[in-house]
Amino acid sequence: MDLKEKLVSSFLAFEDGLDLDHPVHEERSNAIKNFETKGFPTKKDEAWKYTSLRGLQKVDFSIFPKQETTLEYKDVKKYFLHEIDTYKIVFVDGVYSSYLSETTHDGVDICLMSSAFSKPMFKQVIEVYFNKVASKDESLTSLNTAFSKEGAYIYIPKNKMPKKPIQILHLATGNEAALMLQPRNLIVAEDNAEVQIIERHQSLTGNEVFTNSVTEIFAGKDAIVDYYKVQNDEPTASLVDNTYISQKNSSVVRVHTFSLGGKLIRNNLNFYQNGERIDSTLKGVTILGDKQHVDHHTLVHHAQPNCESHQDYKGIFGDSSTGVFNGKIIVDKIAQKTDAFQQNNNILLSDRSTINSKPQLEIFADDVKCSHGCTIGQLDEEALFYLRSRGIPKKEAKALMMYAFANNVLESVRIPELKARINKIIAEKLGVRMGFDL
Amino acid sequence: MAYTEEELKKELETKEYEYGFYTDIESDTLPKGLNEDIVIAISKKKEEPDWMTEWRLEAFRAWKEMEEPEWANVTYNKPDFQDISYYSAPNKKPKYNSLDEVDPELLETFKKLGISVDEQKKLAGVAVDIVMDSVSVATTFKKTLAEKGIIFCSISEAIQEHPELVKKYLGTVVPQKDNFYAALNSAVFSDGSFCYIPKGVRCPMELSTYFRINQAGTGQFERTLVVADEGSYVSYLEGCTAPSRDENQLHAAVVELIALDDAEIKYSTVQNWYPGNDEGKGGVFNFVTKRGLCEKNAKISWTQVETGSAVTWKYPSCILKGDHSIGEFYSIAVTNNFQQADTGTKMIHLGKNTKSTIISKGISAGQSQNSYRGLVQVNSRAENARNFSQCDSLLMGNRCGAHTFPYIEVKNKTAQIEHEATTSKIGEDQIFYCNQRGIDTEKAIALIVNGFSKEVLNKLPMEFAVEAQKLLEISLEGSVG
């Protein structure tokens, strides 16, 4: 049975355990219908021109994990940002692990989608926000909506800020031969609220994992949301990450994506600016080797005047890896005085690596400042020579330059410990010790 | 800009579309519709050899299986391909030996076009092949060119006289089945130009083709084939106009350029098909396939000024097959009123040390949509490929749109690719500066647009550059509030 049929038929079994009268259930039913009609995207779809899901569809994924597994903190400690105190929402094979987590309802709600769906106190928030910005048309998002049950639920009321950053960690134990996960996250920061979130997907064995994740983020007036995605998974783990962000007046949302490992990663990052004086930042570092494939699809929709967006994606591609960047900026007629900037720089290290880049602008307003730049090249030989002439070995010199190349993106990371951690991973990837703390 | 404002205004009031006259020349038109019989009939009328008829039929059969492409960022009512007459030739066409024998009415037409044949002859030494309603009616300077061994004639003549060359090169760069419109063109093209520059010859003058759709309800399907043999050089110009009509006319041309080792081809186009009236009614659908192939050390340079057509769909491309070959693309696309343009280029780097440059300037006004769509592809064996792309858009008013869709696909680590795009409007401070120095707003805008387009205009041959500059002004007239 192919994966699509399997998913569609599993939906009936999935419904069994649910409250069918819940308003969310109608969304689920509509979504599965949409997925059934559309199926998995193929290379014939313009948006999936460079990324194929065919290989994944041949794998016999379990849709629901058969058994619950408990993990010891010491075994998975290294995947946490353990240097600082944080709230933690941890899932093991898609199931919430209360043992590893630290949630709160003290002024802010940092808990689970499953409780948000079932408890009456969250009903209003779910009604107002759930599936409101996520696409009802895109087939993989629909698939996730259909199976939406568990994930992180974060609600920050007006003028509040959680005491510490929040970590969302999805662990896959590999107890199943092949597992498909569909976490659904909802993050709401009301007016003037602020929150910092770190999200990570991690497989613990060499068994195949396919995660199809959807995150909805709502930023109210003057709210500030910092979202960091750490993607440094095993070479058997694939991830399709759909993130939809809706922003109101004067809000600031920054999303940093660090794609440093995994088999196939597809990031669909969509910003919708529904107010004025909004600031959106999208930054990413991609460092790949082997046969890894990373595809960044970004969309920034400027629908109101006086907004800004900043995009900066850096990629370093070695071995037979493939990188894709597709950035789209839409500026509506009324969105005058928009300042949109998009940059994509890439370095190819090997003759077998490929980069496909497509920075797009669609502009309907005349008084705007929009630009994009895209470069593909190598490390500057002269700079390399300069470093070597000062006694820095070739390998380190190269690493240093690549580090500098990626640094623009790291600069704006606002959690120092996370920055240090990412630096460490980058140094590991580049195969050197930097010799200085970054 | 030798006009005073008054003169310009007056002129513009009186002529909406300067070239929108219709010459009543009896023409020999085939019935509307398309089937194998029509294809054979066209081939018969042209007295073509069997291999050519077969070649056309092959294309026609492929075309029947194909679907019209829909990916371009344009919307229009699809033409009904059975409601078009695929052949329309000015009647009474004996073989002329000198201009005196040409139908005086036809000559009158050329005079109106401002490219009167004899005037041209006297003037700058431009050899012109005029294609009216897709049949070549005059080729000047043929004898002068023949002395150098250069062949410049209509493609139907070339099929008769130089079948070995046509057979060898036709369809090698744009195969019959390349795309929907190329297949259609391959099946029904009725004429076009053929040019062959022998080894080591530098063509002493600019070669020029002039296209005009005259008859109502006809499509224009011309085919151009330019072959520059080893070490030769040619500069080729192409101009287009069509009379104003309410219905949409179809223009689906194919241009193939072949630059053999060390050769250079410079191909310039000023496209000024009827763009439709200011309510978006009528106008020409311009669906063109243009492609060039570069062998070792060869260079192909495309320059285009696109101001006309209701819908443009055009991507002059370069296949950089030989090592050290160079491809260039310079474009200005101006859209006003309800015009839609989806244009750009493809640079396919196959050889080592290949270079390409793309400079694209889009200007949109009124309610028009202007898109740049380009592809830069570096093959895994194309060591040290270099590309520089720049796409700038200028928006006038907030009812128009500017879009860029650049595709960059790189499979070689030694490639160096740069792409830049900006979108802006004419700054109030810029206009203020001009006003302050006594230049009125209208002129200031013309000045700024000219400056914006300078990089591309500079690439045009002199006579063309002047015309192009004038066209820019006319196209944008009244677009500034």
UniProtKB/TrEMBL annotation, chain A:
Residues 24-168 form the SUF system FeS cluster assembly SufBD N-terminal domain. Belongs to the iron-sulfur cluster assembly SufBD family. It comes from the Bacteria. Pfam families: SUFBD_core (PF01458), SufBD_N (PF19295). This is Fe-S cluster assembly protein SufD. Residues 175-405 form the SUF system FeS cluster assembly SufBD core domain. PANTHER family: PROTEIN ABCI7, CHLOROPLASTIC (PTHR43575). Transmembrane segments: none annotated. InterPro entries: Fe-S_cluster_assembly_SufBD, SUF_FeS_clus_asmbl_SufBD_core, SUF_FeS_clus_asmbl_SufBD_sf, SUF_FeS_clus_asmbl_SufD, SufBD_N.
Automatic annotation (TrEMBL), chain B:
Residues 46-203 form the SUF system FeS cluster assembly SufBD N-terminal domain. The lineage of its organism: Bacteria, Pseudomonadati, Bacteroidota, Flavobacteriia, Flavobacteriales. It comes from Flagellimonas yonaguniensis. Pfam families: SUFBD_core, SufBD_N. It comes from the Bacteria. Coiled coil: none annotated. InterPro entries: Fe-S_cluster_assembly_SufBD, SUF_FeS_clus_asmbl_SufB, SUF_FeS_clus_asmbl_SufBD_core, SUF_FeS_clus_asmbl_SufBD_sf, SufBD_N. Residues 211-452 form the SUF system FeS cluster assembly SufBD core domain. This is Fe-S cluster assembly protein SufB. Signal peptide: none annotated. Belongs to the iron-sulfur cluster assembly SufBD family. SUPFAM superfamilies: Stabilizer of iron transporter SufD. NCBIfam families: PRK11814.1, sufB.
